[in-house]
Amino acid sequence: MAKYYVFKGSTGTAQVVTDDNTGSKLPKHRVGYWIFSKELDLKSGENRIGASSDKIIAAVAKDGYYLWPAKE
Predict the structure, then answer these.
(1) For the chain, which has fewer Cβ within 10 Å, the N-terminal or C-terminal residue?
(2) Under a CB-based contact definition with an 8 Å cutoff, are residues 42 and 34 in contact?
(3) Phi and psi at residue 58, to the nearest 5°
(4) Hey, where are the domains in the chain?
(5) Is 64 exposed, middle or buried (0-12, 13-18, 19+ CB in 10 A)?
(6) pLDDT digits over 11-64, tens only?
């Protein structure tokens, strides 16, 4: 299992997952800034956090982060 880190926006409901606990790989938040929320262990094949772990792991490997869309 690999360690990932969840950051929440200071405004709105967007969340982002990254493998960098400093948040330096995160995109600029549209309004406000990113706040560390929690540590997360993910392994391939899981689907326990509202998105496929495979999709999250692939996005983090490609872009450095996985952005969860804002909830409406």
Answers:
(1) C
(2) no
(3) -65, -40
(4) 2-68
(5) middle
(6) 888 899 999 999 999 998 878 899 999 999 988 888 766 788 999 999 999 999
The pTM (predicted TM-score) of the whole model is: 0.85
CATH superfamily to which 2-68 belongs:
YcgL domain (3.10.510.20)
Those residues whose C-beta lies under 8 Å from the C-beta of residue 16, and which sit 6 or more positions away, are: 6, 7, 26, 27, 34, 65, 66, 67, 68
Residues facing 7 on adjacent strands: 16, 36
Strand 15-18 to strand 2-9: parallel, antiparallel, or no bridges (unpaired)?
A: antiparallel
